């Protein structure tokens, strides 16, 4: 699991530079900064942040969200297409739910919802949520009910021992028209 104790190693592994206890990295003109003194996670200003819950060191899941955003930027996603902690009203009682990351496409349409979870050998929130998803849909499918235009749902985790490793389950949230036509012809 990524924790406060190994975060510096993770950041060095990812190529961040230490400048007076601020770990900084710029990717495609977007700057990510970890401020150790204030225990804050600073994202590029172009990322829309709905809630600051994952912008500090309070919960280990925040480090997974940060690493995932770093990975998205490294893969070429634009910061202005990322939203952290978008909120939806869920269920009859309109209880709020927050996904960790919403990725939008070039037309600003919802494309991908990512739910980040911690993992370790003893108590993996990632495995627990994957089991919930298979039983009743879990968090991601409740968000999908509110954001039906999304193309993909992703359950994501990252871990660090000697090197950073990530794991994800990606679910396509739309029909494969070609497959359906093929099946129709067979019947």
From TrEMBL:
Keywords on record: Endonuclease, Hydrolase, Nuclease
InterPro entries xref list: HSDR_N (IPR029464)
Highest taxon above the source species: Bacteria
Domain Type I restriction enzyme R protein N-terminal: 67-125
Keyword Nuclease: yes
GO molecular function annotation: endonuclease activity
Name of the molecule in the record: Restriction endonuclease
Organism: Campylobacter jejuni
């Amino acid at each position: 699991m990524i924790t406060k104790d190994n975060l510096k190693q993770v950041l060095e592994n990812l190529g961040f530079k230490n400048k007076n206890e601020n770990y900084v990295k710029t990717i495609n003109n977007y700057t990510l900064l970890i401020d150790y003194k204030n225990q804050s996670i600073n994202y590029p200003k172009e990322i829309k942040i709905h809630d600051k819950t994952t912008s500090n060191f309070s919960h280990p899941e925040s480090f997974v969200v940060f690493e995932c955003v770093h990975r998205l930027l490294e893969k070429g996603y634009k910061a202005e297409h990322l939203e952290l902690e978008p909120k939806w009203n869920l269920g009859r009682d309109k209880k709020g739910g927050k996904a960790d990351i919403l990725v939008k496409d070039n037309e600003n349409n919802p494309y991908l919802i990512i739910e980040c979870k911690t993992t370790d050998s003893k108590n993996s929130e990632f495995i627990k949520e994957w089991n919930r998803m298979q039983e009743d849909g879990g968090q991601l499918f409740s968000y999908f009910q509110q954001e039906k235009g999304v193309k993909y749902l992703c359950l994501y985790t990252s871990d660090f021992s000697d090197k950073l490793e990530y794991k994800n389950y990606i679910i396509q949230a739309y029909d494969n028209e070609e497959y359906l036509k093929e099946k129709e012809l067979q019947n």
